[in-house]
Task: structure prediction
Amino acid sequence: MLKAGIVGLPNVGKSTLFNALTRSRKAEAANYPFCTIDPNVGVVTVPDERLDVLRRIAKTNVVIPAAIEFVDIAGLVAGASKGEGLGNQFLATIREVDAIVHVVRCFEDPDVVHTMGSVDPVRDIDVVTTELVLSDLEAVQKRIEKAQKKAKSGEKEAQSEVALLERLVPHLNSGRPANTFGATEDEAKQLKLFQLLTAKPVIYACNVAEAELSGAESSPFVRQVAEFVRAHHDAAYVPISARIESELVDLAPDEAKAFLKDLGVDDSGVSSLIRATYTLLGLQTFFTAGEKEVRAWTIRSGWKAPQAAGVIHTDFEKGFIKAEVVSYADLSRLGSIAAAREAGKYRLEGRDYAFRDGDVALFRFNV
Result:
């Protein structure tokens, strides 16, 4: 299961957001720095309205949604790359995740301490990004030294690695993250092997005040983040109110919807964030649907039919013959597999078929 790490300065709402995402009270949320020391981990289901439609079509009561793992990582501070605060420990945890949810404080509240003394989301982003960049720069320098020894002996792979890393150094030195480095497709694959912190995809969670959620896009703080993200980062952003989301944790779904409607909001910010993180990780969903269960399966975008089959069981991939496929759009419109087959929308696909988000599949295999 892929992991997304929640990062940010202390007291920006990370643990409150984690509790809302996981619908739990696992993470301590308090008004002082470093109330989270050991990272909290929670598995989060991906909201998907298609599952209920498929459940009705398949005539089953068992539904298993897709899921990703969120890790609540304690607040980074200036100097974390040199061990300030609990920097080394936290940076090591970030290295283990697949994507970063960077929580940015976008609300004023004199009762909630800000470690930098004032609310300035772009400055806060810079502080955290700088620490990640500095950590990457140190890792790159060490890797260059190691690769240079091999390169001198004529090893071509090492020479290629040194050339790429030496191009990356000035980019990092300018304070820019590795995910904005202009790399070719082959270089991008090589960069993945370096496990750089700033090469990970990032989404910014703009934590706004309760009263500002319905008009969050017009908040001056959110606008600052939006402009910064567009200009400087290969990233996305989602406005969210961690405090409101934490209040929804104890409510039934219908009650939560009514609560949000009273606030002038159609959907939970957590739902938007989970879906955005899922997309950020380059993931998509296909479904299996039968009388036993309806299930969402997670695959990488662009995966071929045998790879998708292998997510269910390795034997499905090894003995793959064909995939019986119908799109969710066609199946939901027509109402049954039989009707989809009669309409010519139910088809057989071979090894080269690239699965699309929303495909409903049944695999033929032989081992």
About this structure: The longest strand covers residues 320-327.
